[in-house]
Amino acid sequence: MKVAIQGELGSFSHEAVRNMLPRAVVVPCARSAEVFERVENSSVRAAVIPIENTLAGSVAEHFDLLLTRQVFIHREFPLRIRHNLIAPPGLTLAEVRRVFSHPVALDQCRSFFRMRPKIQAVPFYDTAGSVRHVIAEKLRDAAAIAPAQSAQQYAGRVLLAGIEDDQQNYTRFLLINKSRRVGRGANKTSIAFGLKNQPGVLFKALSVFALRDIDLSKIESRPMRGRPWEYVFFVDILRGDDATARNALRHLAEIAEFVKVLGVYPATNSSSI
Fold first, then answer.
1. Among this protein's residues, is 171 annotated catalytic?
2. CATH fold of 188-272, please?
3. What is the pLDDT, as a whole number, of residue 66?
4. Does the annotation mark 112 as catalytic?
5. Domain 84-160, CATH homologous superfamily name and number
6. CA–CA separation, 44 vs 245, rounded Å?
7. Number of C-beta neighbours around residue 166 at 10 A
8. DSSP string of 202-254, one letter each residue
9. Which one of the listed residues 63, 72, 127, 171 is annotated catalytic?
């Protein structure tokens, strides 16, 4: 089973695939749009994408792509993010003067840089890609911040493990494919909807869930392309495909300009985090 990810082998997305689909063949992609294109044209069976991080927030591009592409969410998985300082073999911590990584990873390791003012943080397009870069280029003063798996992937060496500032650092990943089939045990629904700019319309839209005692676990707005100052709302409700949820969505469709169901899938058990 081929599964696409955005980024390089050894990345956190790769680690998420290993947890969700251990036997899958991972197909790395340079761009997020390419990941969704591969799912739509069936060159891969599925994809695993990050959707939000407990510290950095949501991955806006992936919300936009979920709205516009013909894909469906089937699972979610919270991955504990552990940042590691990885260097070429033979390089010591005292020799490191530059550290490459994705800007989000660099920002989540501020204490490391504050304690080592002589080390420069260098933004790079990908965490695992930064490890590949410093090793392939044989940089003798540089290391990278990335998952431990990257060290195995590119023959690097972990100099320091767990250098992230916050131990409660998780990224929620989604498994997506083209099938709209709802699996057993599905108790969470992700939707997107648009509203006309009218007084009280958001209150009316959310009331369709409140009136039925349906719990919302997330709500977020994104700009609507081509319509300045208008927004799409993304909502996660803790309800599966049952009569109550279907009635709520029918009621919402009477208020909203459009409603798109992005997926119906099993919710992650918060006690497992």
1. yes
2. Alpha-Beta Plaits (3.30.70)
3. 98
4. no
5. Periplasmic binding protein-like II (3.40.190.10)
6. 31
7. 11
8. HHHHHHHHHTTTPPEEEEEEEEPTTSTT-EEEEEEES--SSHHHHHHHHHHHH
9. 171
Percent of the chain with pLDDT over 90: 91
Of 160, 90, 148, 157, nearest to 119 by C-alpha is: 160
Could you tell me the pTM of the whole model?
Answer: 0.92
Task: Supply the DSSP string of 96-137, one letter for each residue.
Answer: --EEEE-HHHHHTTHHHHHT-TTSEEEE-S-HHHHHHHHHHT
Question: Taking a C-beta distance cutoff of 8 angstroms, is the pair 12, 170 a contact?
Answer: no
The residues facing 123 across adjacent strands are: 101
- Of 36, 100, 173, 193, the catalytic one is 173
**Encoded tokens for 147:** 């998952």
Per mean pLDDT, which range of 28-32, 202-206, 211-215, 228-232 is the poorest? 228-232
Position 221 pLDDT exceeds 70: yes
